[in-house]
Specification:
Two copies of one chain form a homodimer. Chain A is globular, with a radius of gyration of 20 Å. Helices cover 38% and strands 21% of the residues of chain A. Chain A has a five-stranded mixed beta sheet. With 416 residues, chain A is α+β, with helices and mostly antiparallel strands. At the A-B interface, α7, α8 and α11 of A face α7, α8 and α11 of B.
Chain lengths: 416, 416
């Protein structure tokens, strides 16, 4: 037990010591040299075409057309089923992506560097709300937007970020927590703060006023723009906490729409999976539970570092948005998550809780013992390909992941 | 009594029906034709040079030099004492200004139009924090910044706002309340949201990239930028509520650093004054109570419409900043202000109170009956001219203003 406490203390220390800085935006093939044409990285633990859910398949076919690897969606589907694409998890390449989480060679990726440890993490640019590829959208509008991100916004962000020397993210998130964001389903504060920091650099480095206007307008209209910054931020600070012998702390939670997977520090890069659950939430007009795809996306990496559902107390307004009860009960979610976390983050605090830090470092032993599953705030995709987002809600990480992980963890500790 | 209730219902109805839109930024002499060279508008009820506090005198001498009406501060002081400038309250000209509240011919003024009633209200551009004229600063750095606001930022804001057709403010404030702003001592959310809305228009209408960069940078570094938008917004929605016979609702609260003044709808434009109180708060390093000037500024107009101290529950982080106790007690301030308000604003709600509206419409009868004084969140100026801001705190409106107003109000109702 002493060994586990010490190992967990080291894991938490590394997570809290992270110094994530948004430093660049570059094409995926430059960020991840192992990423080759025909390869498609996706959210969650490994999954083959046959077991992929509707929106994941929708995104796969869409991204194949966007990349020019298929003439149309039907052709893309045939090629996907015929084994012509190689599927791997984002997490295996230092990347993350919300919902379907498509990452392919020519997409621009935001780069977060953890300056305390020197590692980097990557994420594509957030596309906005509604019919978008991360929710399974794949029509001409969706692909056209991806092309614009590649040709105009991505390069502009890269120029601006390099010119200004990057944006330290810890302070942005600390402010966001005092402004009603939990950084998963509510990112309006951090998105606005980020634009405020970026705008002068974009003005300085974007030669064309029309391009600048389009970039400022696109970022400014997207309340979730920061989600795709917060995710690689979280990935960049959890990665150095991986592989610490004897540590029972979760280093990743992720879903591919079919399975939920977790990784634990002491068991290295192994995934412990279970079928994903269905989010409970609120639906956009015209949609309901029958339309919903089960839980999906790498975005639960933010809960892994104490944000999202763990920081619900900071964001009373998100409680109603995700249909989780009265706004005044936001604090209860954070208190409950405190039961399964080994510590709190003294730099990320919640004013309404008199500046208590967000619960950080999920201990699989506590989850199994208390049967309290991590609460994740999430978007809800339509279960069919090509439709898009239909709502937002709250979902539980399946306890079976933690139970399986605990068995394997016990084996590493020499317990049968 | 029935007549008063009906009159108060009409007053509240007009305040809630306001549709304030930030439409322009223009030179003060265009906004206020009655404003002539040699005239200096100031915060609060009327006050002559002899009774002006230190920072007010500091600002007067500074603005006289800025306008070219004096060769230096000493010359300006001599001229001010010699009666060569004409002093009038901002409120007498449809304007407001935070702290000392200087308004003179060549300063650029933000213009808020209340589209439901057609009236306009004006306020100078916020200068940022620290040594600034609104806190009595008057050196070359302060005057240079004012010149830049006049020559570069003001015209750029005007071009951008006109081009985009203005920014409706009610929705911005509603979002700000869900993002931890109370719109008096905490404006970071609304300042960021405003920049987000403005930036594309500024990019479209500012020809010079260097100018654009400076404007975006200046707005982006100033967490209180929105204060000077929220104030004329509040003025624009209280002005149509003035002069309703039989209404006991406060239409303005304002301080000149010497006296606190209120106006009541049923007693028209008459000021009811009492000596200002000293804020209780927190001081910047190196300063303390002995340095503090008493309460000052037109900014209490935001409390008049239910923001600032009345909306404290929305902004737990401001409670610590103004030294008003534990952040978790923010809701108590809002609940207490509910005791002296005739209604709530259904469009400006506070998530953590399960979307209760901010208390709106201060009834002088309730203030006198309960002896609960309006709570105002405020900045604290150094009592000497030329120093600047030394802290932030909470101050009470003096009960004597309300007692005097009630006597006069009773007379209008035929009660001896």
């Amino acid at each position: 037990m002493r060994k586990i406490e010490e190992a967990n203390a080291e894991t938490l220390k590394r997570m809290l010591a992270g110094d994530p800085v948004l430093v660049d935006c570059i094409p995926a093939h430059e960020a991840i040299p192992a990423l080759k044409p025909g390869m498609i990285l996706h959210a969650g633990p490994p999954v083959e075409w046959e077991r992929m859910c509707g929106p994941m398949r929708g995104a796969i076919t869409g991204i194949a057309v966007y990349q020019g690897w298929a003439s149309d969606l039907t052709d893309a589907e045939k090629k996907a089923a015929g084994g012509q694409f190689r599927f791997e998890p984002n997490h295996h390449h230092g990347a993350v992506g919300p919902m379907t989480g498509m990452t392919t060679v020519s997409q621009p990726l935001l780069v977060v560097e953890n300056r305390a440890f020197g590692n980097r993490a990557y994420c594509a640019i957030n596309e906005g709300l509604g019919k978008v590829m991360r929710f399974g959208g794949n029509d001409a509008e969706v692909l056209g937007r991806l092309a614009w991100l590649r040709d105009e916004l991505g390069p502009a962000l890269g120029r601006g970020l390099r010119d200004m020397g990057g944006i330290p993210l810890k302070a942005v998130i600390a402010r966001g927590l005092s402004m009603g964001d939990e950084m998963h389903q509510r990112n309006i504060a951090c998105s606005s703060l980020l634009l405020r920091l970026l705008a002068p650099a974009l003005a300085r480095t974007t030669g064309d006023a029309k391009v600048l206007e389009r970039c400022l307008d696109f970022i400014g209209r997207n309340d979730q723009f920061f989600l795709n910054v917060g995710m690689p931020m979280a990935k960049s600070i959890t990665d150095p906490a991986r592989g610490i012998a004897g540590s029972s702390i979760v280093t990743a939670m992720s879903r591919n729409g079919t399975e939920f997977g977790i990784r634990v520090s002491g068991t290295g890069d192994r995934w412990f999976t279970a079928p994903v659950e269905m989010p409970v939430g609120l639906y956009f007009p015209g949609f309901g539970e029958k339309d919903a795809n089960p839980d999906m996306g790498d975005s639960a990496i933010v809960e892994t570092v104490g944000l999202g559902g763990f920081a619900m107390a900071a964001a009373p307004a998100v409680v109603g948005f995700v249909g989780a009860g009265p706004a005044s009960e936001a604090a209860n979610f954070t208190r409950l998550m405190g039961e399964i976390a080994v510590g709190t983050n003294p730099e990320w605090t919640i004013p309404s809780l008199d500046y208590a830090g967000v619960p950080t470092g999920i201990d699989i032993r506590r989850v199994v013992e208390t049967q309290i599953a991590p609460t994740i705030n999430t978007g809800i995709a339509h279960r069919k390909p090509g439709v898009g987002q239909v709502g937002a809600g709250v979902v539980k990480a399946p306890l079976a992941c933690f139970e399986n992980a605990l068995v394997a963890f016990a084996e590493t500790m020499g317990v049968a």
